[in-house]
Amino acid sequence: MSYVVPPAPIPAVPVAGSSDSFPVRRIYCVGRNYAAHAREMGSDPDREPPFFFCKPADSVVPVAQGVTLALPYPAQTANYHHEIELVVAIGKRGRDIPAAGANDHVWGYAVGLDMTRRDLQLALRDKGRPWELGKAFDQSAPIAPLVPASRSGHPTGGRVWLTVNGKAKQEGDLADLIWSVPETIAHLSKYFELLPGDLIFTGTPEGVGPVVRGDVVAGSVDGFGELSIRIV
After folding, report:
1. What distances in angstroms separate CA 137 from CA 76, 115, 125, 131, one per listed residue?
2. pTM score, two decimals?
């Protein structure tokens, strides 16, 4: 087969401790999956069904362990926010997956950032419009190397934290997720057939806030390394 324009490279995330990479097909993100974060965004944290938005696969920015990656401040925003999250990598196809079997579909986990043009997101939200301009922009999904579930197991708790210039900003625990990882996978698979290569950003704890050029953002989820970026 020939193409009329050169095909885009396959987005991929490195695998920790390996020369292999995980090809990215789709990125799903869970909105407001920690009660305290829901409150700080002006929403009711009651256990309503989870909702999702997407980022393009090529918004992924791999961040190597021990490296502070330069990340450009995006265009058309004056309120650029950090959101630290556990990322789930799907390795087995499934639809209508029961929560009890959802972990069987997980290939691995990583720590990632759902970077957000908050001013654009809130303006769109207030008009009842989609969030893409606020969430689905270029380089909006920095992610550390994936840790295979065969090595890490499936976490049900663990500290989630983020600092800006060494000052604590976000602090939470995976045990505080409103919808657990298996429940999130089960719910999402009612609407989409999940396939190998899909990533799920599982939500962020409270403390989201702005960053500016020159800021160094570092964060981690216990057991899955650390991610560090500098806004330039």
Report:
1. 11, 9, 16, 10
2. 0.95
